[in-house]
Structures are given as structure tokens and as C-alpha cells.
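Objective 1.3, modelling of assemblies. Example input:
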Amino acid sequence: MRAVRGADWPWVTIVVATVCVIFVAMPESLIQPLSGDRHAILHGELWRLWSAHLTHFSLRHALIDSVTLLLIGTMAESIFGSRRIALFLLIGAPLISSGIVLASPALLDYRGASAIAIMLATMVGLSLWQSRPTSRLTLGILAAILLAKIGFDATGMSLTLTDLPDHVRVAWQAHLLAVALGALYDFLPTRMQQTDAITGLLRADVPHPQ
Amino acid sequence: MPRVSLPFLIVLPLLILLLAASGCASWVAPHSVRQAGSVVDYLYPDAKEPPQLEPTVTRLHPPVQVGIAFVPGACGCEGLVEAEKQKLLQRVKDSFAQYPYIGNIEIIPSTYLRTHGGFTNLQQVASMFNIEAIALVSYDQVQFNDTNALSVLYWTVVGAYVIRGDRYDVQTMVDAAVFDVSSRKLLFRAPGTSQVKGNASMASFGQRSRAARDLGYQQAVDQLIPQLHVELDTFKERIKSDAGFKVENKPGYSGAGDFGGFGLLLVLALCGVGYARRARG
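Predicted structure (C-alpha cells):
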């Protein structure tokens, strides 16, 4: 396993999930300046690159994403540590949003925390893949199901329990980017640790190789 | 050498002085100068009757791509040089960058608009710049020139340089009319006006009055911008109840980062694998 570290409380995940729920209870006029509006981002409202992941289209949408994030985030923080998860959420969230803006001109407004949840899930999955070879079959099946789901979403045949408005489609591009970013993490830390290029904040959280 | 009579020596300078004094008025600009570009002249150049608009539903697809341009002057007497026009339009553009339902705002150079071009020309420009709506800025500026009592001192020649004996009064009106290009419907409009008055010496009259004309446009646009914001807000409210307008989303408008119930089950399974491993460990 690349990194194992116990965390007392998954405070990063709890904060992010709580903010998601608080935001969805706020009036739309306050949420609109925070959503991933493509045009607004291109006009310099860069905070949306982060805040888009905390906004949702409906209460059910926010609740399912928050619960998912809470589950996977708790596990991720117990494996990688809260500081590292905080750092990767801070880096990963804008990268996903930027990727959507660059790659999907037709996607004009993005909301939802699922992409960061998928990024964490990919990190957790790859970590388990390395630390537990006997679980690889199960993990492989889960990965295949995840990719199949993204594929279904891409073709418009989404399987979702949320009540998205009619004009809203599942942003499969964000999920695909999240998988790529999560997978990228599996390669990055080793290099960064070897070259000692990572910040003190992160170093404090990196366990010694076992 | 011929002899010159005394009366002639007295009369000649007086005659010259009289001619010079009476000529002052002709040395400065005419009493009034007008520069105008009318949106009606541009869009309906040969209209003898009021335009007949068929009742259609105007469909708006936010964020709407908007163009903005000064309408061409009908008489070739363009009010502003192109660079000044671009600066003024840039200020209007900047003030509307905050609205998420307004997409890119293209400043269209006057050279793309033909005099009396009509909607045909407008459609061409819209296709060229990929815009759905256009704000046409028409203008009407009149400069009145007068002299005051001090102008009598121009006869001293030095006075023409130091005495402010000429007056100008520049009255400007700009009007921005926003049209939906495909339905040709006027969405909303807003005016801006200004009045700039001043005095100048005869020698500096041209320069000062030109600066006053430019200032007139700037002040009128300053007044136009907040009016446009108000009209835009009013229009936004109006289209909610007006059956003639329909706001539609562009294809693939919004995307949800939605893992859904299925994704939740996947995460539960993944957590199960993780915790089972830990329990065994």
C-alpha cells in the first residue's frame, strides 16, 4: 500500500459534505455566483473552479453526492491523511472544472460533488489494488462498472436516483476527468517524495514506506 | 509718385478694420454642425410605410451572444473616429460582462455596417461575428456656435489668440437599441444625453470644440450605461410574462456532477472491500 495513515476524524470530508448541504438550502440567487458557469469562469470568476463542486441542482442531488463523498472521503482520509486529501481536493477540484471548460464547450453550467468523490474513489481503489492483491478481482469489477456507468452517462442513458431538472444531464466528462486525476495520483506521490519537491505541509502527512 | 489724399488714408484702414471685424464670423465654424446616425435610417432605408412584423415568438438562448456597434452615419458625417467609437463601445461591453446570461460581447467595427444596409446587412454581420442579438448605437450631436461680446477684440489680432470670444454648445444624444437578429424584434432600448458648453478663442476654437464633441459622446455614454442596465433588468422581468418571448437553454446547457444511487452503491462496495481488508489485518 502506497500510504497508510489513520485519521481521527475525516474533518475535510465532513466540512466539504456539510458545505454541500448548506449550499443547497441557500436561495438560488446566492448559489448562482458559485456554480460552474462556463462563461463566468472564462470571464475571470475563478473561484467557481472550486465552488462548482459544492453546489447542486436539487436537495436530493446534494444529499446523494454528500453521502457518497462522506463514505469515500472517510476511507480516503483514513488511508492518505486529512492534510493530503485537503491538498488534493484543492488541486483536483479546479483541474476537473478547468478540464470541463476546455474540453466541453457545450457544457455551460456544472454543479456537483460527485467528481471529487470519484477522484477519491479512484485513489482509494488503486491504493487497495496495490495493498491487497486478493481483492483485485472485486476492485477490477467495480472499476469496470464505474467505467460502464460513465459510458452510459455519455450516451444519455443515465441510471440515477436524483431528481435533476429536465435540461440537466450527467456530466460524464467530469467523472472521466476525475478518474484520470485519481489515477494520476498513483504515479505522482512517489516521484514527489523521491525528489523531495512536496511542501512541508504534505511531507508531514506522508508515512514512511513499509 | 502719385499723391494720396488724406481722406483716403483715413478711410482705408477703417475699411480694412470693418472687413476684418465682419469677417470674424466667417473665420469660425458655421453656426451649427450636426452629426447623426439613425437606427431607423440604417434598418429601414426605403421604408415608406411602417414595417410589418409578424407575431412570432422570440427565442432567447442564454448566454446570448451579443454584438454592439455604432450605426453608420447617413450623410457620411461620422461623429467619431473609429478608435473613439471602439473605446466607448468597450466601456459598454465591460459594464455587461458581469451578467452570466450574456455571452461574449463582440464590438463590431463601423466598417462592417453599410449605410442603409438594413436587416440584410445586419444578418450578414450576425453570421460573421456569430451573434444572436445586437445593440445598435445611434447618435445625434448638434454643435451650436456663437460669438460673445468679447469677440470684438479679435480685431487686435492678439485678441484672436487670447480672448475667448467664441462659444460652443454641444448637445449629444446616443441611443442603444438591442435587437434580436433572427426575429428582428426590438428587445429594449435606452438613451443617454449630454450637453457640453464652453468658450474658446478664435484660434483654439476648432480644437476645443472638437474636444467638447468627444466629451459629449463620453458623457452621453456614461449616462447610457446605467440606463441600459435598468432596461435590461426590466426586460428580464418582462419576458417572464410576455408570451412573445421564450427563454430556452442551449443543448447540453447544464451538467450535473451526479454520482447517483448507482454510484453510491459502487462506493459502498469499495468501502466494503477496504474495511474488510482492514478487519482481516
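Residues 11-203 of chain A form a domain with the Rhomboid-like fold fold (CATH 1.20.1540.10).
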